[in-house]
Amino acid sequence: MIQPLLAKSEFIGLENIAHLAAGGETPMLKSHRQVIDQFMIDKSRGEEARALEADMVELTRDKCARLFSVSAEEITFLSNASEGINNVAYGLEWQKGDNIVVADVEFPSGILPWTRFENLGVEVRVVRHKNWFIDRDDIAALIDERTRVVTISHVSMFTGQRIDLESLSGLVRSSNALLLLDATHAAGVIPVDASLADIMVSSCYKWLLGVHGAAVFYVNCERLPDFRPPFLGWNNPIKHGGWEKPTEFTLQPSAHKFQPGNAAFISIYILNNALDHILKTGINSIEQHALTLSGMIFEFVESLGFELMTPFEDSQRAGNVCFMAEKIEDIRQALERQHVLIWGAYAGFGRLRISTHLYNDSIDVERCIEALKE
Predict the structure, then answer these.
(1) Contacts 24+ apart (CB under 8 A), 78-81
(2) What own/partner pairs with CB < 8 Å and gap ≥ 24 does 363-368 have?
(3) Which structural domains are found in the chain, ordered by start?
(4) What's 92's DSSP letter?
(5) Given 89, 117, 174, 342, which is the most exposed site by the fewest CB atoms within 10 A?
(6) Per-residue pLDDT tens for 217-254?
(7) Whole-angstrom Cα distance, residue 93 to residue 104?
(8) Dihedral sign, CA of 30, 31, 33, 34?
(9) What is the pLDDT of residue 326?
(10) Mean pLDDT of 149-156
């Protein structure tokens, strides 16, 4: 039997539940309750609260830097991954004839912001999947001297495909383009070297075991030393002219310059706690655990004759196994009645997704298999 890497008893709501829906939402750690209490205590301390909250931001930032193998100065926290992508979209100066390369199976937040610039003569070039697989050569075929950004997910929320980040980074950097990486379905379950991207965003309420309200935003300072924020507020500057010179300011030198206002402190307190568990368990151990369990699910789903969307090779997948089926919502609800939680057609995505993470064990997989047989 394959045991969980992190005991189910450390999570809320996993009694008699096979929770295989990490790609949508992960269960809450019970220890988050104490963290929330600490936040409420800190917040109640008047002006001192801001110093305590700022300290927590820096502590969490340091842990993110360890997880993503980058400098803490290159990381900040925005409200969601979509905000981070829009920071890039509106932070660049566009010219007629520029283009952006995206994949057709990308999450809408990775595609839709770029369409706002089509009226300026900017082209959104779409890489089409082949049997749900995005091929590096097809990306390369759309990149030219006017490509400004290539945006892609490290692991696809729709198909479960994991891209070869090192190879793609080399391809994009051989051009004049920037690589914008969405690590939402990779961060917390497989190693992510953010330095291979120019900008990286990641939600925190899925594999990172956090909650909504905070997302990781990374900017490669070596590659983009002069990249400036498109949106300004009181928090972007490190120095402000005050009432005497209210329009004068100096931006923060770190990635915090992309944060116009206060961070979602309560979400960051929770993320800090979640990162403790992920870093202590070890990202390489989590990766192997998720691959082993998801591999078992892959083989069974394949034996049932469903149209698999996720590649089988370990190097090309992570914790998600995605497949097409008729009556998607009927299947999801039938499994839910048997206390097996998976992700279905939420937000209009017509496929089923089964996700394995550090709190899952082989019993969860067996329960899912038995439920699918019916």
Answers:
(1) 78/201, 78/214, 78/215, 78/217, 78/258, 78/259, 79/213, 79/214, 79/215, 79/264, 80/203, 80/212, 80/213, 80/215, 81/109, 81/182, 81/184, 81/201, 81/202, 81/203, 81/215
(2) 363/1, 363/18, 364/18, 364/19, 364/20, 364/293, 364/340, 365/18, 365/293, 365/296, 365/297, 367/18, 367/338, 367/339, 367/340, 368/18, 368/20, 368/297, 368/335, 368/340, 368/342
(3) 8-28+283-373 (3.90.1150.10), 33-278 (3.40.640.10)
(4) S
(5) 174
(6) 999 999 999 999 999 999 999 999 999 999 999 999 99
(7) 24
(8) positive
(9) 87
(10) 98
pLDDT given for residue 348 in this prediction: 72
Strand, coil or helix: 20: coil
Tell me, what amino acid is at 246?
Answer: P
pLDDT at res. 347: 63
For the chain, what is the mean pLDDT? Answer: 96
Residue 120 CA from chain centroid, whole number:
30
- Mean pLDDT, range 133-137, rounded to an integer: 98
Residue type (1 letter), 137 = D
Angle between helices 265-281 and 48-68 (to 10 degrees): 40
C-alpha to C-alpha distance for 273 and 29, rounded to whole angstroms:
9
